[in-house]
Design goal:
By secondary structure, this protein is mostly helical. It has one domain. It is built from 3 helices and no strands. Helix 1 crosses helix 3. The termini are far apart.
């Protein structure tokens, strides 16, 4: 995949995962980074179970990337200090 494809897939996956985990986006740059990391994590997890990971910009790859981004977000929220908003 090209870098543009990773950015597009990362933006979509990060934004969707942010909405699933905490009902708001974390910002464009953070969503892209989270989505790209999520795509890598999701691809790794799927490869561990013998399935194909991210293959391009398609629905299956988006699913893998979103699943990976949700995992990354849950881990991130689990280890980061809690912030209280008033």
């Amino acid at each position: 995949m090209t870098i543009v494809a990773w950015v597009i897939l990362g933006l979509l996956a990060g934004f969707i995962a942010s909405g699933i985990v905490d009902n708001r986006g974390a910002g464009t740059v953070v969503d892209i980074a989270l989505g790209v990391v999520g795509a890598v994590v999701g691809g790794f997890v799927f490869n561990l179970f013998g399935a194909q990971g991210v293959t391009g910009i398609n629905v299956r790859s988006l699913f893998v990337a979103v699943l990976g981004a949700v995992i990354v977000l849950l881990v991130f929220h689990g280890v980061s200090p809690r912030r209280h908003t008033a």
